[in-house]
Amino acid sequence: MPRQLDSGDCLLHLILADSELELVPREIASHRVIRWNAHRRGRRPTEILLDSSVHYPAMRKLPDWTRRGRPDIVHFCLLLALDAPLNREGLLREYVHTRHDKLITLDPATRLPHAFNRFVGLMEHLFLTGATPPDKPLLRLEDAPLADALARIKPTRTISFSHLGRRKRWKDIYRGISRDDDVCAIVGGFPHGSFISDVEELSDEIICVDPEPLHAPTVVTRVIFAYEEALGIMEARQKR
Ligand SMILES: C[S@@+](CC[C@H](N)C(=O)[O-])C[C@H]1O[C@@H](n2cnc3c(N)ncnc32)[C@H](O)[C@@H]1O
Question: 111 and 205: one domain?
Fold first, then answer.
């Protein structure tokens, strides 16, 4: 259970943007691979999550098909973020924004299933009902472009991460951030390519942290760790 917030505590908002998380699009729902997979799982074809590791043969007709259907990236990133000491301190807020402008808001107390198939089932329920689990929803899904998400969060600083950004060292990223600030960090929830949303327009800064494109989960853990270090959160925890 995350610690109760002290008044004046600042938050890090983490958005996984343009994530490749979606239900099977109607235009490929009748493909035999999709029908077979849906039948096996006892669901309608358009009620299962698109997963390139299973639906690859059906996806060639889709625009951007080489990057779509990657719930594994979202699963991996969220498991790491929710377990981070910053989240345990109640100072992290996680959001997943998708290519179709769906926005998932997670309660910091969310405990995601580690098993991928159970995560997929949870996401399918979320896409179909808008909130899950049914008794006490911890995840909520709504329609919201990235700009609307930021308008709601109202961060004092928005930092996006891209290997096409301006080079910066991790220790300099949060320099000058104080406990009065709410920072929003945007990391792409896709395997390759560029942001679809107009991240440049929405960010104060776009930062590159490595000469090579890194995997999103690697960047997510470091975005959080660098923030913990910059605000002395790990030091404070060690003294407890
Ligand atoms: C697998 S990458 C997508 C590849 C993409 N070509 C890119 O812009 O880095 C997923 C996300 O991780 C972050 N990322 C990956 N490599 C990065 C780098 N060298 N510097 C900053 N962010 C990076 C970006 O947010 C990116 O959208």
Answer: yes
Whole-structure pTM value: 0.96
Q: How far is the CA of 63 from the centre of ligand 1 (A)?
A: 21
Q: How far, in Å, is the centroid of ligand 1 from the Cα of 16?
A: 11
Domains: count for the chain: 2
- Ligand 1 atom closest to the Cα of residue 211 is 19
d(C-alpha 238, C-alpha 85), whole Å = 11
Alpha carbon of 188 to ligand 1 centroid (Å): 6
Q: Are residues 102 and 212 in the same domain?
A: yes
The CATH number given to whatever domain includes residue 128 is 3.40.1280.10
Does 7 reside within a domain?
Answer: no
Q: Which atom of ligand 1 is nearest to 212's Cα?
A: 19
Q: What number does the ligand 1 atom closest to the CA of 193 have?
A: 6
> Can you give the residue range of the structural domain that contains 53?
26-59
- Do 76 and 30 belong to one domain? no
Q: What is the pLDDT along the chain (240 residues), one digit of tens a residue?
A: 555 555 456 899 999 999 999 999 999 999 999 999 999 999 999 999 999 999 999 999 899 999 999 999 999 999 999 999 999 999 999 999 999 999 999 999 999 999 999 999 999 999 999 999 988 999 999 999 999 999 999 999 999 999 999 999 999 999 988 878 999 999 999 999 999 999 999 999 999 999 999 999 999 999 999 999 999 999 999 999
Q: Using an 8 Å Cβ cutoff, are 234 and 85 in contact?
A: yes
- Within 6 A (CB) of ligand 1 lie 161-165, 187-188, 190-194, 208-210, 213-216, 219
Token reading at 237 = 């925890």
Q: Are residues 112 and 164 in the same domain?
A: yes
80 and 185 share a domain?
yes
